[in-house]
Specification:
- The protein contains five helices and eleven strands; from the N terminus they run βββαββαβαββαββαβ.
- It is of the alpha+beta class.
- It folds into two domains: 121 residues, 2-Layer Sandwich (Ribosomal Protein S5, domain 2), CATH 3.30.230; 65 residues, 2-Layer Sandwich (Alpha-Beta Plaits).
- A hairpin with a 2-residue loop joins strand 2 and strand 3.
- Helix 2 packs parallel to helix 3 and helix 4 packs antiparallel against helix 5.
- The longest helix is centred in the middle third of the chain and has 19 residues.
- It is rod-shaped and about 75 Å long.
Length: 191
Amino acid sequence: MYTPTGPHTHETVVKKSRFIATVVPVSTVEQALSSLKIFSRQDATHNCWAYRIGEAYRFSDDGEPGGTAGHPIMNAIDGQEMDNVLVVVTRYFGGIKLGTGGLVRAYGSTAAQCLRTAPKESVKDMLQVSVTIPFDAVGAFYVILEKLEAEKLDEKYTAEGVTINISLEKNKKEELSSAIADATHGAGIVH
C-alpha cells in the first residue's frame, strides 16, 4: 500500500469538460472531510470525491448520475493500492453530455492518472509493543531499537527494570523478541 506525500493535481479535458483531480494525504476521517472543503472548487459544476483510510472509506457523486463518479474514483484508489488518501475530481461542464459510460471513464481515468503521477511512499503496517528489560540491558536495547528502525514512545522505570513502549513494523516483532531474549539472557519480555 502507498500514500501520497503531499497534495498533487492532474487535469484532463474530455469533450470540452475540464476534469481536475486533486490527491491529498489524510490520516483521519475528520481530516478527509476538512480537506474536502479546502480542495473543492465552489465555482465548479461538480466536486466528486472518494477517500480510503484503512478500512474506512466513502465516496460521493455530488449530483452526477449515481455510480458515475464517486465509485470510479474509489476504484482508482483501490486499483493504485493507495491508503490514507482523499481524491477530489472537480468537473467544469463544457456543454457536451458525456453519458454514464463517458462519465465513469472520465472520472475514473482522471483520478487514476493523478494517483499514478503523485509522489508517494510505502505505508508500513505498524505495531505498538511493550518491552520489559533489566537495567543492565538498556544500552543493548537501544542498539536493537535502532537496528530494527523502531521508535520509542515512552518508558517507565520500576524496581525490577524498565518497561519501554515502542512502535515498529509488524513483520519485525519476532526479530525483536529474539534479539531481546539474546541481549537479556531470557530476562527480557516483549508484551
